[in-house]
Amino acid sequence: MAITSNRIRSLFLATLMVLSVTVGSVSLVGSATGSTLQQQGEENETATVVGFEANNYNASRGDIAEINVELPGVSTAYVTINSDETNYNPTLRVSDGNLDGQVTVLLNTYATPQGPGPSFGVGNNADTVEYVGGNANTTEPLPTGQYDLAVRPDEGGDVADTANFELTYGGPTSFGTLTASGQYNLSDFNTRDEVYNRSSATSSIAQGDLVVHRLGGSGITGAIIANQGEGESLEKAFLDFLNARQGNDDVALLTVSRARTGETLPLTEDNFKLVVSSTRSVVFIIIDTDDLQLNNQYNVRFAVSSASGIVDRTAGVSTSFRVVPRTAEFNTEMENGQETAITYADPGASLSGSTTVAPGSELRVTADDVDLDETVTVDEDRNWGTTFDLTGVEAGSEFTATVSGSGVEETSVPALVREGRRASIDFSDQSSDGQNVTVDEVNLSTGGYVVIHDETYQNGEEISSVRGVSEYLRPGVHEDVEISLERPFEQGGDITAMAHLDTNENQEFDYVSSEGEQDTPYVVDDNPVSSGATLSVDGSGGGSDEFGPGFGAVAAIVALLAGGLIALRRD
Q: Which intervals hold domain DUF7827 (predicted)?
């Protein structure tokens, strides 16, 4: 049969339609009027296909459960949650406000004694959920057990899909300690991501930094939110939960006490911050350490009893932390009987050290007699480092270096300039599976790494061109250095092997994570020490891998059409 150009165009457009995707997304109870969309068919019938994303949903008592409803072709549906045993059977109208084909219904299993208003919500602010009938009240948090789920396209219509919802007992399961820089205020933390992006796990907290307790488990978040009255803070809601708004003082407890004396820190609405991740069952309790005792250990315990309704028997977790002074030190070597910071007469001259202050804190590094006045940021391991240019400075020169800032006590040490560092590298053409490459020989005067860059390095992409890095190499000559690539090559091409320093002396490659500030290349005669080679992948020979993993269906069709592989014939 002849394939006309119009037929080819129709096939192409159909392929584009097949490739289109719908992206799903989870506010407060509201209402919306929906409309049913029409689908073209032999009888032009109304689309009635609605359903649940999964067959089974699970949550712990006190959790905010998620029930995902799919609405392809319609903007509203009706969901019933039913248990004959507990006489709980509310029906909800859910509306897909952003027409993405999905609504995530949120059910606060701790708030059901308060009725449907506080109990139900949605995961995406564009969507809405409205209680339309049935019994939505319980005398205690939603009882554990099995609940039947049903979804209908129309109120009172036939059931289109069913699923099961199981509610069990939960409780606290983990308690961890993190720290965040004292440059932040308690009010700066409002979301789970803000906490994680600004804190780091440790049990050693510098006085003046924030201590962050991560309480993991199930059933806790919904209880806190259910205790939050209109206009009240989460902190007050948490204290109400601990103090049992209903008058039962054996519901839950949180204690922060000195290990030596047992003296407890009284928590008030103003001296801690609570961050709740409602759909991930985690609570962050953030406390300022300004008023805690230096060089003291504090024990922290959280527990809930069966009176809370979350657990069927008392369960608790604990953690501890120690408050330490704010200090910063240089990495030094013993030289002429005294601890001395060592640096080198080259463009990659560096000073580094460690500190007790939280990651993200900023320190200032200065030196007399040399051009050094830099602000550095403390990394995840509480190390710091700075790189500067000492090209032309005579080997054997001495100066004094100082670190200060972020409330640390100013620390100064003598520094010695040694002869500039040298490196050489030998890298030959080779064939591999694209997962690994081998550098023939590298000589690093003070140790470091060999880094593999792809051809985009030649276009100035110094960071994004990094494909892989060797393990830390000690000073001296290394032969046949095999490097496993984090981003393998799909096809062959021109690649570069480059020698890099370990400027902060932590034996971890930080060039990419520091955006080129740390672990800079060895430089000789103003040029990075490197060697280029051609890589063949599985016999592919040279060439760019630009279109490797990204050569998709649309591009394939375009290529076939352009290459004449689909013949066009006239009748």
A: 50-152
